[in-house]
Amino acid sequence: MDLNGLSAEQAPPISAPIRFFLTAPLFGIIAGFLILLSDASVLSSRYSVESIAITHAITIGFLSFVMLGALTQMLPVLAGVRVPKVDLFAKIAHVFLLFGTLFMIIGLFQDYSKLIFASSLFLGIGFLGMIIPMLVSLKKVVHVTASVRAIMTSLVFAFIIVLMGMHLLASYGVGKFSSLHSLFANIHSVWAVFGFAGILIIGISFHVLPMFYVAPRFKPFCKQKVVWLISFGLVLWLILNIFLDSYSTVAKIWVALFFWAFATTVFLKLNRRRRPISDVTVWYWRSAAVFMTLGAFAWAINDFYDGEYIVIVSILIGGGFMFSIMSGMLYKIVPFLVWFHLNAKGYMSIPTMNEMIDKRLAKTQFILFLISLVGFIISFFIPSVLPLFAITFIISMIILEYNVIAPVLIYRKIIKTKPEFDMSMFSISVEGIE
Amino acid sequence: MSTIKEYLSADHSRCDELFASMEDAVAKDINSAKESYDLFAGETERHFQMEERVMFLEFEQKTGMTEGPTAMMRHEHIQMRNLVKEMGAAIEAKDKDKFFGNSETLMILMQQHNMKEEQMLYTMAQQHLSAESERIVDMMQSMIVE
Q1: pLDDT in tens, A26-35
Q2: d(Cα A325, Cα B96) in Å, to the nearest integer?
Q3: Do A3 and B112 count as a contact with CB atoms less than 8 A apart?
């Protein structure tokens, strides 16, 4: 059995997750500016290169950065595994993903094929450089819990969508598209949303909700079966999509049903939570549940309108559900990491977690984010108002970046002082006891 | 009779409940929250001692690992004891913000700690100490908090 998970030193260095967390809102800001500068009519088509670039500024730049950062921190605790050399992998992957995403955005907007090729390669290296070591480490887990199984499943989906994404992106580089291009794009997006991000969120919430809010635990049925049932739905959808397209809506409804059920469960569990606190993280969980419910229905119904409303579905699920949860998590995880690492280094007079981020700013950020989301949906019908909501979105992302930086600055300030307590005498080697 | 793992895991949940009740009491009225704080702090201390004075010792003796996982768990107990003390001081000072700042930190730290214990240490302890499981649980139950 791997005992490394039990050591304080096992936690990856604070820089591993933090570098991802600090970058994520910057891509939110970039996405906001791209929306501001783009023509609204172009954005209402999901296949325009502008839409694709902006979508990926969000899905890779924001969502994936937060997810990967969180995974480096959570794997040792949730699964008891330590990804070997996690700091090095994180550092390299971060650089590749950062430039990969920027190259992709610039390449697509400027139609610059060399840059698009480079982005495909960079993103592939960046993602796989994190996903593969994590999957390899997870294979060693002896005690496989529902959350661990969910994380593994989600990473397998991630692995596949990354390969597909690389191929799709390269097609834009060549400027030639196979007859299967739109099918591939479809699979890539649906599996990314529901397989990678969706299953990951569900798996983590099995732990997070009962633990951090003392909400009722998830039923064994949920924990044991839901991930399988969703995965089955996603594979079924793939098969129907290829061979019996007219029936693929059935599988969509199947998947949507489970996500709707999940959203409802989250909402009800939060109502029954034992902890009285109601902070920005709770509001984000709630908004995520509401948007997911709307998104699940919109996605299933969208098929009956020839996919005309897919942009609204993306805003509801990508923005309302996934973005909400990731933002809420940043508010909890960043102050905790700062406290945890300072405390482990022997600093005793550290501000409490609640003192690290200004509550009013967090609330303002949350409200501006919600206004932007609703505004984006309105803009689909009234394109002229889009710039206004692009601006509210940019402001909310700037505040989010500030709120994430604030605790990190506290860390940097305190780390320069001398610790009150010399922890070196407590440093314990766990080498050689495996 | 429950196993070591079952017994101590159930005690974690019990402490979580007491933690929530304490927060609830402070949220309602910090002036009358002392009692539920004392209950939580007392039971948490009891849990730490059941591990430090009984289970960890047995585990260390059996496996010879005195500087391994149990040492790290002891260290985290120190971190948590400090936070619990800070929360007590905040209640004395009627400082709600200070209290919730510390309770939030304790909550996350405690949950990470519990998860490591439940998923790794208790499982190992159960494997190594299965023959003595009943005696050890008995000793933990009858232990008097120092």
Answers
A1: 999 999 999 9
A2: 27
A3: no
ipTM of the complex: 0.77
Quick: pLDDT tens for B48-106.
Answer: 999 999 999 999 998 888 877 888 899 889 989 999 999 999 999 999 988 998 998 89
Min Cα–Cα distance to chain A from B67, Å: 7
- A433 to chain B nearest CA, in Å? 7
Structural domain spans, chain A? 4-426
Instruction: State how far the Cα of A101 lies from the Cα of A410, in Å rounded to an integer.
Output: 29
Q: What is the pLDDT of residues A124-173, one digit of tens each?
A: 999 999 999 999 999 888 778 888 999 999 999 999 999 999 999 999 98
CA–CA separation, A85 vs A422, rounded Å?
26
Q: B65: distance to nearest CA of chain A, Å?
A: 8
**Total domains present in chain B:** 1
Domain of B24, in residue numbers: 4-142
Residues with Cβ within 8 Å of residue A183, at least 6 apart in sequence: A241, A242
pLDDT at A332 > cutoff 60: yes
Strand, helix or coil for residue A121: helix
**B104 — contact with chain A (CB < 8 Å)?**
yes
Q: Which of A74, A214, A430 to mutate to test the interface with B (most CBs of B within 10 A)?
A: A214
| CATH number of residue B53's parent domain | 1.20.120
DSSP A357: S
Domain A4-426, CATH: 1.20.210.10
**Nearest residue in chain A measured CA to CA from B72:** A7
For chain A, list residues whose CB is within 8 angstroms of any CB belonging to chain B: 1, 3, 5-8, 77-78, 80, 143, 145, 207, 211-212, 214, 274-277, 332, 336, 339-340, 343-344, 348, 351-355, 426, 428-430, 433
What is the biggest distance separating any 2 CA atoms in chain A, rounded to whole angstroms?
Answer: 68
Arithmetic mean of pLDDT, A170-181: 88
